[in-house]
C-alpha cells in the first residue's frame, strides 16, 4: 500500500472544482465504457445538476491535487444516490476510495438520510466489493428501478435505521 495515500483530506465542493469533477469521472467512464447523455449532462454543470437540488459533492485532495470525488444526489426527502465516485487510476488500491465513501456515508447519515442508493456495473468488481464492505446490499430484481445509464446493471442500497 502506498503510505502517502494516508496523507490526504476530504472536503466538499468549492467553486472551481467543476473541471476536476468532470475529468475524474471521464477518466474511469471512458476507460471502461462510453460517456452517455446523462453523464454529459451531470458532469457539464454539477452546480446546477447536483448541488442546486440539495446534493453534495466531496473530493479527496492529496498534495494539493484532486485525486477522488463522490456525489450525493438528492432523490427525495431522506434519500440520496451515491454517484460519480471516482479515484484516479494511480491512487486506486491505496484506501482513498474507501475513506471517501465512508466520509460520504457518514455525512449522509449525519444529515438525516434514511437510504442511500447506487448503480454500478458488474465488471467493476473492486468497486462492488468496496460498496459491500461499507454496508451496501444488492437490490433484488423486483426492486430495481430502470436506470438512465446503459452500463448500470447492478443496483445497491444502504438503509439507516430510524431512531
From TrEMBL:
Limits of the N-acetyltransferase domain: 8-161
Any GO MF annotation of the entry: acyltransferase activity, transferring groups other than amino-acyl groups
SUPFAM superfamilies to which the protein is assigned, alphabetical: Acyl-CoA N-acyltransferases (Nat)
InterPro entries: Acyl_CoA_acyltransferase, Bact_Acetyltransf, GNAT_dom
Key word Chloroplast present: no
Keywords: Acyltransferase, Transferase
Pfam family, any one: Acetyltransf_1
Protein name per its UniProtKB record: N-acetylglutamate synthase-like GNAT family acetyltransferase
Amino acid at each position: 500500500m502506498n503510505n502517502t495515500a494516508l496523507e490526504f483530506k476530504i472536503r466538499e465542493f468549492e467553486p472551481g472544482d467543476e473541471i476536476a469533477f468532470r475529468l475524474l469521472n471521464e477518466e474511469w467512464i471512458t476507460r471502461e465504457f462510453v460517456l452517455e447523455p446523462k453523464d454529459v449532462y451531470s458532469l457539464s454543470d454539477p452546480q446546477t445538476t447536483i448541488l442546486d437540488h440539495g446534493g453534495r459533492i466531496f473530493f479527496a485532495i492529496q498534495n494539493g491535487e484532486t485525486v477522488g470525488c463522490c456525489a450525493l444526489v438528492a432523490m427525495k426527502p431522506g434519500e440520496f444516490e451515491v454517484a460519480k465516485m471516482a479515484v484516479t487510476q494511480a491512487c486506486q488500491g491505496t484506501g482513498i476510495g474507501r475513506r471517501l465513501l465512508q466520509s460520504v456515508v457518514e455525512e449522509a447519515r449525519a444529515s438525516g438520510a434514511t437510504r442511500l442508493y447506487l448503480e454500478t456495473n458488474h465488471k467493476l468488481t473492486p468497486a462492488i466489493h468496496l460498496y459491500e464492505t461499507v454496508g451496501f446490499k444488492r437490490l433484488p430484481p423486483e426492486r430495481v428501478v430502470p436506470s438512465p445509464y446503459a452500463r448500470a446493471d447492478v443496483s445497491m442500497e444502504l438503509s439507516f435505521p430510524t431512531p
